[in-house]
Predict the 3D structure of the following.
Amino acid sequence: MRLAWTRAGLTHAALGAALCFSLGAVAQEDAPAIVLADPDENAAPEPDTAAVKGESVEFTWQAMPGAARYRVQVGRSLLFSPALVDVQVEAPRLLQDLAALPRSHCYWRVSVLRSDGTEGPFSSARVLSLRPEASARSNVTRADADDGTPAPVMLPAQGDKVTFGGAARSARVAFRWAGIQRKARVEIAEDQEFKRVVKRTVFRKKDTKVELGPGEYCWRMSHPVGLPHWSGPQCFSVVMDTEPPALTIAAPGPQLFTPHVTVTIQGATEPGTRMTINRARIRLQERGEFKMLMPLSRGRNTFKLTARDPHGNQSERQVVVILVPPNVYGRVFGRMRRLKQSIQEVEGLHAEVDAQNQHLQKLMMKGTAASEELATELLAVEHDTRELTVVRKQLEDEVTAAARSLESAATEVARVK
């Protein structure tokens, strides 16, 4: 698996850009000074600047709480073994004679010496490049890249992300370094304290690949012989990419009938993707767009479009184009147009029938409401009829009683006479 390092990763891997200057001139800072908001007493001081003052170089760094003294080391390599300068100072600065330093480049770092006699961890190393003024314009130092950016010190660097995918279950991570000899003792762990070491070995070349699964890792290096004198840890992540690249087809559609002998297939995918049509590679534009004129044979033509990213994930689409002779195309598509018109007419009739059905449903709803009102009125009439029947019977009973009273009265009158 090929791994590509971005410029941002290389710049970060340099652990601070190289300080380039002519003898007797002021060195330029590799990066702005980093100031910690709430410094930890167990943290390492952050190197700041290195400037030439006459025949000396002044190293400065961030002052740390709880520091009784500071220990400064300058070496030819990241291992600082042996150290060219190893001194203790009280203030967060050191004025070092320029004659004690190499004329090419060197590395420097700082640690805290506490009042109880204990020593804190070393800071990350900074690169200091020296080159004569005569070669400043024509030659590039070992610490500088062709475009003037600093060369990497350790790769993978702090914060780098190594991505892999496809059928692989792990990534072949390439470890590279500069400024020390070819061989190096290396430890790779899952934590910054190196309590969970996953690999401890000696790399015999400066480009060694190691299989690592997804996760967070830190690595450090030391001289291959003797007691280890470890460099600062560089932590990176290994990420598995399983998402296929996006692939859209703008034209033609999934199936096309045409009398033309060619067809234009166009769409877009992700930049950096390998794009093929029927296994023939096509070139992508800057934003991932593609446009290809493809020949057609008579009958059915199937085009399989495949987009494959650098990690082996791929997306596939299929386009079918049917080449029809012009005379057949005219007859067939004339019939199709007439059939389409007939279908449109039928659809119009369906729409009219649907409108009429909706009107009838409204009338039925109105009729249902009227029927309910009529039924209510009939119930009221029946109720009134029953009440009238009761009243009539009462009246008849009263009339019958009155008649009987009159008859009795008449009989009584006749007897009296």
Remarks:
- The domain at 17-135 is CATH 2.60.40.10 (Immunoglobulin-like).
- The chain has four domains: 17-135, 154-241, 247-324, 331-358.
- The chain is about 25% helix and 35% strand.
- Residues 193 and 218 are 9 Å apart (CA to CA).
